[in-house]
């Protein structure tokens, strides 16, 4: 399953620099035969200490992390929804992502030009968001047409139009849509993808000259619970050129506990509303990403469609119970392994062995 996170933001805010950082985190391509080579897509591993532990415990020959794709989406500027810059093409790219990483420039550097002369984080952020809102308005206006021409009953049309009108009012008031704003419309037209419904987080590209007050002001003024990840892209790029030993030393010296790269990847992954389950043994330990609502049988299908077809049961233990027991054997002896049927809703961190018959 390819889950995608799109990098959006004004020109010259550091999107491609972040993208390059992400790409430099090399993954073993042979583990992902499905991944297409696209210069604008970086497939990256999601760091997970739990997987490291499981892999160590079982002395697994291979360790395979869950992956997420980042897409470098260039060309979005004020007026894009009206065809300015590279215009609507870019909005189409955003439409095909599952989450948005909104890059905002906080770094000060006279040599790097800014499209509006001078970076102003809040208005930059709002300009891009306005383009997303305008694009959704255009989409919804065409939805109105589709409802009018649709084959449903007049009563149904009325209900759908009412829902679409409420959503349009929200957008016209400069507000993002929520997931459940267009439930009925999206049930009727499942192909409709709205940009402001996508989960979003902010990557604040800072440097040593960034004022803390400005950053705090920004955090206070932006809408509700949008997470802000602060990254000094330049330092992080330099850091990336070091060996892992040197990197560790450097990070300790500067009191950095987690690399920005890891923070970005984890933030993107958590926004996708996925859960992670594990398979672990001597041959390999692997983390799998599944939709939160997936049951055991659906989860088994992520590993292989044959397993889903021939599903018998899931033998499972929670990550904590597994680690506390110290091994598969010991956790079985402790009675913490469970037999679960196909409807079992897999829990975050479950270690699973699927029984199947083909
Ligand atoms: N001083 C400084 N320059 C940066 C930083 N991040 C990116 N740049 C520079 O800004 C320019 C534009 O960066 P780029 O990643 O191409 O931005 P994009 O247009 O958003 O993709 C490049 O010359 C980068 O080297 C930063 O954190 N500090
Ligand atoms: Mg770029």
Task: Explain how this protein is built.
This protein is α/β, with parallel strands linked by helices and 358 residues long. It has helices at 15-24, 49-57, 88-95, 121-149, 154-172, 183-188, 212-221, 233-240, 244-253, 260-271, 296-303, 305-309, 319-325, 328-333, and strands spanning 4-8, 41-45, 62-64, 67-72, 99-105, 200-205, 228-231, 274-280, 284-291, 311-317, 338-340, 351-356. The strands form three sheets. A six-stranded mixed beta sheet has the order 2-4-1-5-6-7, with helices on both faces. A three-stranded mixed beta sheet has the order 3-9-8, with helices on both faces. Helix 1 (15-24) packs parallel to helix 8 (233-240). The radius of gyration is 23 Å and the shape is flat. The two termini are 23 Å apart. 32% of the residues are buried. The structure holds guanosine-5'-diphosphate and magnesium ion. Magnesium ion binds next to helix 1.
